[in-house]
Amino acid sequence: MKTTNSIQALILTGLFCLTLLPFAFSQNKLDSLETQLDQSFGKDKLVLLNELIPLHLAEQNTKEALRYARLATSLAETIISADNQLIQAGDHYLKPLSFLQLGQVNQQLGKYADSKVAYEKALTEAQLNKTPDIAKSALQGLRDVTALEQVDEKQKKGFLGRAIRDIGVAIDKTSDDLGIVATLKLAKMHENNQNYEKAAKKYEQVINQLRDQGDWEQVEELREHLAEILALQGNIPGAVIALSELKQEKQKENDDRGAAVIQNRIDEVKLRPAKPPIAPPVPVLPQDIEIANAEKQALRMRGIAERAENNQDFQASLNYYKQYLTIEQTLAEQERLQELTLLEKAHQIERQEQEITLLRQNDEISQLNLTKSQVELERQLVLKRSLVGGLALSGMLAFSLFFLYRNKQRDHQKLGVAYQDLESTQIQLKSAEKRIKSLLNQQLSGAVANELLTGTGVSAVQRKFVCIMFLDIRNFTPYVEKLSPEEIIEYQNKVLGFMIDTVHKRKGIVNQILGDGFMATFGAPVSAGNDCEQAYLAAEEIIRTVKEKSESGEIPPTRIGIGLHAGQVVAGNVGTRDRKQYSITGNPVIIAARLEQLNKEFGSTMVISKEVCDHLPKEVKAPMAFSPVPVKGRSEPVEIATV
């Protein structure tokens, strides 16, 4: 009962996936089943394959569904048999189910002939395994395929006529390498015998098998060769169509060179005569006469089946149709046996050629052995003559090596002492370098200190566009009059410490600490690319932090003034050879200092020039009202805004 329910569930799943694709399983379900498939074997793998087929159909992935269906039928043929004791009788339904789903996939792809073969196989296996649900579905599938073919043929022929037309094609669905090699050998044999029609059919078989395996490179080569076979057969239009399809694929892949090569082949084929070459006469064998008689008998049965169908005598039509199928299957088997005979003859010829080659190689080896013996005798004579001289030379060489070894040993000892001295000196240099870096970082900003240590950029005087910040602590002098020197230093460290850290964080350097303030530069010696933005954000952060620390009591109540201005300056080391300082010089420095002093006049916290604001991105700068203000030391007024 459980087996019957499982069969019905799987059949219903396959049928519903064909009509209700939008309601199929999710991609997560597919990924989970495919992960399990890689780790499964035998019956478990066959069950997973039958679950994956309808899911891929639901995702409109018919290529994967066809691949899994073929794997399922191949695996079912291998493991499901009466002799396999590992498979229980209740699991034999998987074999007809696999063929049923293969028929559904081929039906979805429009391959009605292949779909019929699969449905018929499913019907036969279902009757043998007594699974009526699958048999019913297979029979319904045959009816559906018949109806679809009637639509395609515009109802000109009946079911039997269209079914018989597709029967008789020898289909070898074996995808292993041995089958491909065998079919390819038959194709080449027919080609060598100038039987281009059979050669073309075999090449098409190999191409289909290679497509199933995904070997697209060899498929492309064989398709081009198939076009050559069609041309040799005299089918020039067919060859041109085949090459044109290859050219279109090359163009889709943007392979202009490959497309040009195919076009040259097309032009060459068009120049060939359309008349087919005269094939050599083929002797008529007795088995050929029997095959011809059997084909006539098959055609007679086909005609009787069609007439019975037209007379609505479906039972008789089905009986004659089965006789026709039996004859066609026998003919296909005989053709397969003939091909196997041809293959065996080819193998015999290959073996004979290999034996002849082996005999020739043995003869050559014998001659080489004689020559080798003579050479060996001569070599032994030469070896005896040179042995004495070699021994004398070896003694001299041993003495020389001993002498060199003693000298190298002494040199090695000296090198060991020198290496220890060098390692000690290197440790001292690293320690001194660390102390120098520490001292430079205490006295200079990190960027200037690094430039001084590396010796790049700072030594040369450069013209740069920078943003200058002047910061002043308001009422500093009255406040510190009552403090001791230690308290003054502590206050400066508390207030100026986080301000200087903010400048460094924003890629700026502090050029001078003025007691009650400092001067900072953004853009020299190294530019961040958005120096005005960094300076503006640093000023905002300093103002905000001073307010928070003052309100929280972390520092005494403190007010500051900041001036920001940007422009071209001269930057570099200034001083004597023994004492130099990295300096920023230029009119923008003076203007920035003047702008900072304007905070007292306007009662503001920050004064910013329009030159700085013009270099700020829209998302950073706040709405500001600029007005021209005369500045001491400059003939023209400066446009500023206050914050």
Structural overview:
This protein has helices at 2-19, 27-38, 42-58, 62-79, 94-109, 112-129, 132-152, 159-166, 177-192, 196-213, 216-233, 236-252, 256-270, 286-310, 314-443, 446-454, 476-480, 485-505, 531-552, 587-602, 610-614, and strands at 462-473, 509-513, 517-522, 560-575, 580-585, 606-609, 627-629, 638-642. Helix 1 (2-19) runs parallel beside helix 3 (42-58), helix 6 (112-129) runs antiparallel to helix 7 and helix 9 (177-192) packs across helix 15 (314-443). The two termini are 86 Å apart. By secondary structure, it is α+β, with helices and mostly antiparallel strands. Residues 15-25, 154-175 and 279-285 have low confidence and may be disordered. It is 69% helix and 9% strand. The radius of gyration is 47 Å and the shape is extended. The longest helix is centred in the middle third of the chain and has 130 residues, at 314-443. Strands 1, 2, 3, 4, 5, 6, 7 and 8 form an eight-stranded mixed beta sheet that branches. Among the domains are: 2-156, Tetratricopeptide repeat domain (Serine Threonine Protein Phosphatase 5, Tetratricopeptide repeat), CATH 1.25.40; 177-280, Serine Threonine Protein Phosphatase 5, Tetratricopeptide repeat (Alpha Horseshoe); 456-642, 2-Layer Sandwich (Alpha-Beta Plaits), CATH 3.30.70.1230.
